[in-house]
Every structure is written in C-alpha cells, then in structure tokens.
Predict the structure.
Amino acid sequence: LDNCLFCNIVARKIPAKIVYEDENTIAFNDINPQAPTHFLVIPKKHISGLNDLNDENLINMMHLSKTANQLTKQEEIAESGYRWVINSGKDGGQTVFHLHLHLLGGRNLNWPPG
Ligand code: 5GP
Ligand code: ZN
C-alpha cells in the first residue's frame, strides 16, 4: 500500500536498517529500540494486523516465525532468551497497521508488561 510505512520500507522508499530479507519477509531495526536487540519482522505482503489473518495468508505467520528464529541465532540470544511481541489494536498499543513481530532481547525483560 502506497500510504503504509512498512510497505514503503519493503519498497525501499523509506530507509531502514535492514538486517534480513528473503522472498516473504524482511526484518529491520526498530527506530526506537526498547532492548539491545529490537527487530521488527514483517511479511512483505501487506496484512494490517492479527485480526486480518485468514486461511490464505496465515502462512505468513510461519514465515515470520522462521525469520525470527534465524535472527535470534544470528544475534546469539537464542539461549539467553528473548521475547516476541505483536501488538493489536488500540488497547494493544498497535501504531503501525502492517503486521509486525517485535523481536526483543539482549537484556532481562520485565514481566508483566505495562
Ligand atoms: P507497534 O506500536 O505498532 O507495535 O510498533 C510500531 C513500531 O514501529 C514501534 O516500535 C516504532 O518504534 C517503530 N517505528 C515507527 N516508525 C518507524 C520507522 O520509520 N522506522 C522504523 N525502523 N521503525 C519505526
Ligand atoms: Zn503495508
């Protein structure tokens, strides 16, 4: 989508520090990192968020999982631990309406979240 920030990152119309890319997914540094490792892993295909997952596009969640796991190994946080976060809607704190998995690690992460 022309007016979608993350579609524009996929299209290289908006710069980002891209750390991984394949035919289905792209991952880049969050502009406002909340941990030493804070990547956003997104499908190249525009899906607005969790509510829009369906039988046809659910495969993209599998692609996100695979990419996230590759990145934890690359960052060497697979063993120390990390967190996946997907915010949804107003109460969930979603601000960008293109599905994205936050991959956070490199420090002890607090629980419960705010
Ligand atoms: P949400 O709040 O929707 O779960 O997450 C959106 C995330 O996108 C936030 O963590 C925010 O810091 C990040 N973000 C917003 N604008 C940009 C941008 O232009 N570039 C990058 N790399 N990250 C962004
Ligand atoms: Zn998009």
